[in-house]
Design brief:
Strand order of the largest sheet: 4-1-5-6-7-8
Helix content: 25-40%
Distance between the termini: 32 Å
Number of strands: 10
Oligomer: single chain
Strand content: 25-35%
Structural class: alpha/beta
Number of helices: 4
Shape: globular
Radius of gyration: 14 Å
Largest sheet: 6 strands, mixed
């Protein structure tokens, strides 16, 4: 079984047509899994719905505690891309016996042209085959925690 934890991020943002802002209503994860014809045994829990720029140390501790307390040894976390590397590094320093993959999107799923579906599918594949450790999966690539950064000029993740 793969445990999926939802934490928010662009993945789940909605667009307010009245004022042009982005906001959270509910996760789109189940819809994405259904559209993607997921046949894996997954359990999904929403920890919270936040922009990752608003994450605190308490939020990272909550994610870590959830990962440590669940029986699953394969965990996927949807996360905002702005602080995904920080959370991955924190988790890597706390957990060594589980395979944890963080993924997200640069464009909200509800926009229709989102990279979220591809990233979710890639992350589900990676979480099944990687050895224990903490990883980030974006744009079909996978990176070890502590060895990746978000390139703000190109809008993609790259090794460091």
């Amino acid at each position: 079984m793969i445990q999926i934890y939802v934490t928010g991020g662009t993945f789940d943002k909605e667009y307010n047509e009245l004022n042009g802002s982005l906001y959270f209503k509910e996760t789109h994860l189940q819809e994405m899994l259904t559209k993607g014809r997921n046949r894996l045994d997954v359990k999904t829990d929403t920890l919270f719905m936040k922009d990752s720029l608003e994450f605190s140390d308490t939020d990272r501790i909550q994610i870590c505690d959830a990962c440590l307390s669940v029986n699953a040894d394969r965990i996927l976390i949807t996360h905002g891309t702005d602080t995904m590397t920080q959370t991955a590094e924190y988790l890597a320093g706390q957990i060594s016996n589980k395979t944890i993959v963080l993924t997200g999107a640069m464009i909200p799923y509800k926009f229709g042209s989102s990279d979220g579906m591809f990233n979710l599918g890639s992350a589900l594949a990676f979480v099944q085959v990687l050895p224990p450790g903490v990883y980030i999966s974006m744009n079909g690539k996978v990176f070890e925690a502590g060895k990746v950064r978000k390139n703000l000029e190109r809008g993609e993740f790259e090794p460091i």
